[in-house]
Amino acid sequence: MIHHIENNQINEEVLKNNKLVVIDFFATWCGPCQMLSPIVEAMDKKYGDEVEFYKVNVDENQETTIRYGIVSVPTVIFFKNGEEVERQVGFMEENEFSKIIEDVK
User: Fold this and answer.
1) What is the pTM of this model?
2) How many whole angstroms separate alpha carbon 47 and alpha carbon 42?
């Protein structure tokens, strides 16, 4: 299940999670973000038992957006044991997304 998180939830949900955590930073007005959304859903179906998936709306969560240095959307950040291990900016195909998960989990 993909969770939507707010500024004040990021520490509890992400940094203290022992699983691989994937955060999709998006905006509702962003075309590539809309194209990426079904791919994130497919990744959740494929890896949901091993990976936690979250979405952060950059327009509604500017504190988190600034803290993680998000300057373009979509940006997907992969965290392991609370540490950033990978970052992808822009749209990515399903096979590329899957490869990153396999490489970092």
Assistant:
1) 0.93
2) 9
